[in-house]
Structures are given as structure tokens and as C-alpha cells.
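Allow me, if you will, to draw on your knowledge of protein folds for a short while. I have a record of one protein: its chain in single-letter code and its fold written as C-alpha cells. Kindly check, if you would, that the fold set down in the C-alpha cells agrees with what the sequence suggests. Thank you for your consideration; the sequence and its C-alpha cells are set out here:
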Amino acid sequence: MDHFNYRDGTLCAEDVPLTRIAAEVGTPVYVYSAATLARHFGLFRQALDWTDHLVCFAVKANSNLAVLKLLGDLGAGMDVVSGGEYTRARVAGVPGERIVFSGVGKTLAEMRQAIEGGIRQVNIESEPEMRALSDLAVTMGAEVPVAIRVNPDVDAKTHEKIATGKSENKFGIPIAKARQVYAEAAALPGLRVVGVDVHIGSQLTDLDPYRAAYAKVADLTRALRADGHAITRLDLGGGLGIPYRRDNNAPPLPLEYGQVIRETVGDLGCEIEIEPGRNIVGNAGVLLSQVIWLKEGEGRDFLIVDAAMNDLLRPAMYGAHHDIVPVAQPGVAAEVRRVDVVGPVCESADTFQKGVDLPTLGAGDLIVFRSAGAYGAVMASEYNSRPLVPEVLVSGDHFAVIRARPTFEEMLSRDTIPEWL
């Protein structure tokens, strides 16, 4: 469920017509619904209300400060994978004790930043990282809570570019080696082992891979406790999918996901951490765009819009689908035209969808790409010297620009021509 619906013939974000946002902010523009964000976060909390837990929002999905503050004020923790994301979480008002630092390539500077600023735990991904963190903690006179990320070699049955739990992936320590690594971690100064971490991928639409991975984590936890480790937390990752196609069967609900967690690890008495991102923010956002031209080609027509692959990279990078709908509600008898929806970037990869049936549209008409709140704005670039797409947050009948579109002058001011040219 989201809060983007037609009212009086116009698609609205909550109580705000998207035509109003287009007129005042311009297009292309990302539009987020505060009510949808709050609702989706609440569903995950409800799914784990049977145990101590912390729902950590995966900042990589959408790192806008306003989004982070909204979720943080609701009690969310944050899962960060860089020093920049850590800084964003802290600036948004999230305390260090609610921030988990993940990621396979943490630098010493990032580790220092987390220790100095406060951290709930660091999820260790390799032995070299573990030893470096120990050395740094000792020099800083700190004790760092850590969990070790294990790779359970479970196929998440998702896109190969976002699968993270198979042995061939770069993430985590092989689960068969975990007891050895935990023994070393327990002996290293400056580290305090508190839990086990696992994350098998993103956009999962089947609960069986979770069940298989979490069963392995449960067995490992029992073995580690037998070895003398005080395992009190299980960080079970995120990755639950969302319905990008409204005509398809919906993925499992957070409540069903929470039941799998309860059935597999609920008897261990551990605090549960999960790290949803896409499932909280994906359907809470749309990309609003305007038609530039309808171009008649040989054997196909092209609907050329002002959004491009630099604004929404997922279709070009992953072959991802986003439902495309007009802002003006089509009538029952509206003429339908089959078109390729494309952007103005000078690459054939700048194609959002081929052969989609839409009401006949022309220059100036507005469309939206649904389910664009996750991995949209955060992956955007200024390719072709196109300004970064702005972001808007809607709450009820009002909205605010939460990231402005830069001017050409602002973009150029970041470049420097050396004196010798």
C-alpha cells in the first residue's frame, strides 16, 4: 500500500496533486510520501513485536536527511556502509547507539569515525578488517562491539548483481570458518563480540532462502555459545522485496517475514536486528517526469521524457521494471498507444521500458515512474551535465523540497581550471 492515488482525475501524493509539484519545482523530481514511510516502518516493528529488536533502515536505499530524520524520530536505527552515510545518520539526529556499520571495505578513517562518534556495533567482514579494528581500538583506548558477518552460501534467488549470500560473493566470512574467526576475535583486545551478522541479498520475493540462511545462523549461534561466546544479538539483514509490477503476485509481507525469524531463531533469546531499506522506502516514492516529444519511428514510437538514466539508473543497470502511469487519469475509452519510454541521454541504454501500452500522450503531459523511492536518487548522477534530480517530501496537504535542483553555476563552481591552462 502507498499514498499515491488518483483524486478528481489527477494523481496525488497524499493530498497534494503532482501537477502542483511539477508546476512549483519542475521536472524531473522525486516525490516521497511521509505517511507511506511511516506505515512501512511500522509494519516491520509490528513483525518483531514478540521480541527485543531494532529495525535499522538501510541508508544506501535512500540517504536524504529528511527521510532519515523522519524514520529516526520514529525509533529507527540506521545501517550504514560508509563514512558519509554515518555522517548523514548522525546529522539526522540518530544516536550512535542506534547505528550499525556494515560494508566489506571499511577504511581506517571510517572505523575511527565510528569509534569517536559512537556505534552500536561494527559488522566485521574479514579477518584483516577485524585485526585492523582491534589495533585501532587499542590505540584509541576503546572497546568496540562487533558482530561477524557470515556467508551462509544460500542462493537468494534474486538478481545476480544484488545477491550477497553465495560463496562466490565478496561478502562475509565462510560460515564453515566462523568458529575459528570468532575464537580469534574473542582473543583480540579492543573488541567485544556481541552477535552474528548475515545478509543474503536484496529484492527477495521468496521466504525459503531466509529460512535456510537463518537455520544455519541458529546452528552457528548454538555452537558459538558452546565455545563460550556470549551471543546476544542476531543481525539478520534485510532485502525483502517490493511489488514493482502491480499486476504480479505481491512478495511476502513483513509479518510473514517476521514469522520466519521467529520460527528459525526465536528460541535463542537474542535481540533481533533487521536492515530493511527498499521495503520501507521503495513504494514510498515516485519519479515525476514530463513528456518532451512523442517521436514516431520506423515500426515503433518513442515517448521521450525529461527523466533519464542518470536520474533513475535501475532500468539501465539491472533491467529493472517500474510501472509507468500518467498523472492525468485516463478515461475508460482513452486511446492507447504502444511506445518505448526513453530519456534524452545520448545512450541507447537510456530506455525505461519498451513496448508499454499507455494512453496517448504528448509534449507537456506528466507521467510517473512508480516504486522509485529506493535506489533512485541515491544512484543519480550528473551524466551529460544534467543537474541532479531534486527531491520532495509530502505530508498531508503540504510538501517541502528536501534536496534542491542545482543550477548550472553551482555545478560548474565545483570544477577548477588550473592557472597553467
In short: Residues 218 and 265 are 6 Å apart (CA to CA). Residues 4-31+282-412 form a domain with the Lyase, Ornithine Decarboxylase; Chain A, domain 1 fold (CATH 2.40.37.10). Confidence is low (pLDDT under 50) at residues 161-167.
